[in-house]
Design goal:
heterodimer, A: Glutaredoxin, five-stranded mixed sheet, 7 strands, 19% strand, elongated, B: alpha+beta, Four Helix Bundle (Hemerythrin (Met), subunit A), four-stranded antiparallel sheet, 19 helices, globular
């Protein structure tokens, strides 16, 4: 009888691990991205505010930046906007926006109404660049270091808590997770 | 109205699936003949309802009804009609509907073919399928309803994910899912056998064609996915050990073990509890694949929508289905005794090793896929497991498996007298060694020891597979479809091994800077750069480079990789040029403008890469041949006899 119970036992163990995995995923809002520790994907896209200009990843090298994927169609992005404005006014790290599969006019009026936390906003109408970055759904935020390496990824709306606990320590060179 | 009709049909389907599960399981258990008899009618009703729901959603797509949230998110009025239909499975909700539709299809097929089965057993099989269907319908209705309305309606849709706007990627999911879902049939047969508390050789004979058919679909589906990742996405490889890929590969490995274990149960009445366990495992891994892809606990390069509440639901479903099946297994499997034995060296022993090694291979893939999750759960930090883990561990179980295949193919059932085929073994091995050395050190001259081993094993399997069929053919004996199918599938394995060995060992990759008129040599090919000139397309402009490719001075092709700048999106894309020549896959990409007409060019040469996919399709073809063998279709007499023998026994 014993050996026939073995598969069941193993499965119960697995179910526990999966349950813990699920509990963690939404809590931390962090999904380990395959990009972590890798160079950020390259892009060169028109700027939302001035379509004649381009926002290029090559120009961003040499300093920290947050890469924030958003769209006017995304409800959570509106929630997150307040936090982004706070991050912007803190002046520690610039935010580069990726306006994902969106309408330019609507996006511009969104920024005019709610305030613009972005240093620049790249327009990704086809969603190709978002695919390169492995974006699941807006909003998603990546922290990229001066060497152009993705060091942190946040899925879902950015909160002041995530900012102070996860992002700020990394930018200022302190161990993450402390506040 | 259509979305509401579809939603309503889906609710009716849920109720019918519940009835199907109840009648199918309770009927035989309580010996209510009329309950068992009603199952087929309920199956038909459920299938009609599911088909109606799918048709309603497709109609909403075709009619550009952007008041349906799912349509608005995955379609666009400018999308061609073909993609408006395939957009049905462009995202999570519709994929689930497709899953359910395919399950209904398999269930109807089983019901139609159930005339060969004892009625009580057939009812139980359909009952278990009803449980699976019920779970998926409940999941869809509760967490992923594709018929939800948007208010106000969107003016236009957000368009289908561009990577899915490709004929290949459009047909890949249904074929893959057909394979996934097909293992539900093997699972249902296992469940029915456990409910009955009885499993004989007839059981294996009934289960075999369904399992083999599902396996063939899965093989095709995986190969198609890999093919289009290479050609369309230009990812520069054909397999990434990505969680989503692994999710389809694990059921394939266990399914392969199941196909072989079933052969033993069918021919010799052995491995009964083991076969049951594999049938449960193969389907469990299909379910787990769904869980991993949909719950967001693991990340992959395939960007799918993920949602934790769905994850919790799937986990609960997994626990009920798999936990229930394994509990039943722990209770019933000890009752299954095998009277017969076998000697070491008999075919059974080789198939046992085959099973063990395939399960180990699946286990290593499983461990690698779940390691990031486990390390995260135990707070050991995030961990990324990639090819450096998968390639060697996978090979560790595959190499002995391939070697045993070449020997085991000559072994007889029951008796371990390999001495009879000693000479065949020796001749084929010597021939394979010659081929291996030729490939590793002759043709490409840069082979490593693994190249030699891989090429030798591939050649050995190829020759060994042919020995018996050729012998039969020379003696004028006929080959049954089952034997022919097995031979074809094994040839597929051999070709896959040779192709993988060659690609892994001899892929060349160079980045070179070329001025107009200059040339570079990579491998046996010379690439002469003709400079770039402006190009213009319907919605883009850019530059196209010209490279004249010659092989030892003989012209091969003129390739024109491009850099395109799309006007609307102002996005620069690199269009690679791909060409097949002498089994080599040449891939050229235009890099940066280095000034003064000079450009950087990336050149990749992959020998035999196409053979990887061709080999997989040959394996699938072998499976299809084997599944269509006559002996599975003429089992009626036996079935009736066995039913007569069991009549009167309580279920």
């Amino acid at each position: 009888m014993n050996r026939f119970l073995l598969p069941l036992g193993l499965f119960v163990l697995l179910a526990v691990v999966l349950a813990i995995g699920i509990r963690h995923a939404p809590e931390k809002g962090v999904i380990a991205s395959p990009l972590l520790g890798r160079p950020a994907p390259q892009f060169a896209l028109p700027s939302l505010t001035d379509p004649a200009q381009q926002v290029r990843s090559a120009d961003l090298k040499g300093h920290w930046y947050l890469f924030n994927v958003w769209g006017t169609w995304c409800g959570e992005c509106r929630q997150e906007h307040e936090t982004l404005l706070q991050v912007h006014s803190a002046g520690v790290v610039p935010i580069i926006g990726l306006d994902w599969r969106d309408d330019d006019t609507q996006a511009r009026s969104w920024l005019a109404q709610l305030g613009n936390p972005y240093q620049s906003v790249a327009v990704d109408r086809s969603g190709r660049i978002a695919i390169d970055w492995g974006v699941y759904g807006a909003p998603e935020t990546f922290l990229v270091n001066p060497q152009g390496i993705v060091v942190y990824k946040h899925v879902g709306a950015l909160t002041p808590d995530t900012w102070t606990r996860e992002i700020l320590p990394r930018v200022s060179g302190l161990p993450a997770g402390t506040s | 109205m259509l979305p509401e009709l579809g939603h309503f049909a889906l609710i009716l389907a849920l109720l019918l699936a519940g009835l199907q599960a109840f009648f199918g399981i309770a009927g035989p258990a309580l010996a209510r003949e009329r309950w068992s008899g009603a199952v087929s009618a309920v199956v038909a009703g459920q299938a009609v309802m599911v088909a109606t729901a799918a048709a309603c959603l497709i109609a909403s797509f075709v009619g550009n009804d952007f008041s349906v949230a799912y349509v608005a998110e995955n379609s666009n009025s400018a999308l061609p009609l073909f993609y408006r239909v395939t957009a049905l499975w462009g995202a999570h909700e519709g994929s689930l509907l497709l899953w359910i539709l395919l399950l209904a299809g398999w269930t109807v097929a089983v019901a139609l073919g159930s005339g060969r089965l004892p009625p009580r057993f057939a009812a139980r099989v359909l009952g278990v399928l009803g449980v699976v269907s019920f779970g998926f319908l409940l999941f869809t209705l509760a967490t992923s309803n594709p018929f939800l309305r948007l208010d106000p309606a969107a003016p236009d849709g957000r368009d289908l994910n561009p990577i899915l706007q490709d004929p290949g990627l459009a047909v890949h999911p249904p074929i893959l899912y057909t394979g996934y879902v097909g293992f539900a049939v093997a699972f249902a047969f296992a469940g029915a056998a456990m409910l009955e508390g009885r499993l004989d050789q007839n059981w294996a004979r009934w289960t075999r064609p369904w399992t083999t058919a599902a396996w063939s679909f899965l093989t095709c589906g995986i190969a198609l996915g890999s093919f289009w990742a290479y050609y369309e996405l230009g990812w520069g490889g054909f397999w990434f050990w990505d969680p989503v890929e692994n999710a389809s590969f694990m059921p394939w490995l266990v399914g392969t073990a199941l196909v072989h274990s079933l052969a033993v149960t069918d021919k010799r009445g052995l491995f009964k509890s083991w076969t049951l366990l594999l049938a449960i495992l193969a389907f469990s891994l299909s379910l787990l694949g769904t869980f991993l892809v949909r719950s967001g606990v693991l990340v992959s390069v395939h960007s799918f929508a993920a949602d934790p509440t769905r994850g919790i639901f799937i986990l609960a479903f997994l626990v009920i289905m798999i936990g229930g099946a394994l509990t039943l297994y722990a209770w019933r499997a000890p009752l299954l005794r095998s009277a017969a034995g076998f000697e070491l060296g008999a075919r059974e022993s080789f198939l046992l090793f085959n099973n063990v090694l395939l399960v180990i291979a699946a286990g290593t893939v499983f461990a690698g896929t779940l390691a990031p999750l486990i390390s995260d759960a135990l707070k050991l930090g995030t961990l990324s497991v990639g090819p450096p883990y998968f390639n060697p561990t996978f090979m560790l179980s595959m190499l002995p498996l391939l070697a045993l295949l070449s020997v085991g193919i000559h072994a007889n059932w029951k008796r371990g007298r390999l001495a009879d085929s000693q000479r065949t073994l020796l001749y084929t091995l010597v021939a394979a060694a010659v081929f291996g050395c030729g490939l590793a050190f002759g043709l490409y001259a840069r082979g490593s020891i693994l190249t030699l081993i891989g090429a030798m094993l591939g050649a050995w399997i190829l020759l060994s597979s042919l020995v018996d069929p050729v012998d039969r053919w020379r003696r004028g004996l006929t080959l049954s479809r089952a034997v022919l199918g097995m031979t074809v599938a094994h040839i597929g394995v051999a070709l896959a091994v040779i192709a993988l060995t060659t690609v892994q060992s001899f892929t060349l990759e160079r980045d070179v800077a070329l001025a107009p008129g200059a040339a570079t040599t990579v491998g046996n090919y010379e690439f002469r750069f003709g400079g770039v000139r402006p190009i213009e397309g319907p919605n883009y402009d850019g530059v196209g480079g010209t490279l004249v490719v010659t092989h030892h001075g003989k012209p091969v092709a003129v390739l024109t990789p491009q850099k395109r700048r799309y006007w609307v999106q102002r996005q620069v894309t690199s269009e690679t040029a791909i060409h097949m020549d002498r089994g080599n896959n040449l891939l050229l990409a235009l890099g940066e403008d280095l000034g003064a007409g000079r450009w950087s060019v990336r050149i990749q040469i992959r020998p035999l890469v196409s053979l990887v996919w061709i080999a997989a399709f040959i394996m699938a073809l072998g499976g299809a041949l084997a599944a269509s063998d006559r002996r599975y279709r003429t089992a009626r007499a036996l079935a009736t006899a066995s039913e007569a023998a069991t009549a009167g026994q309580p279920g």
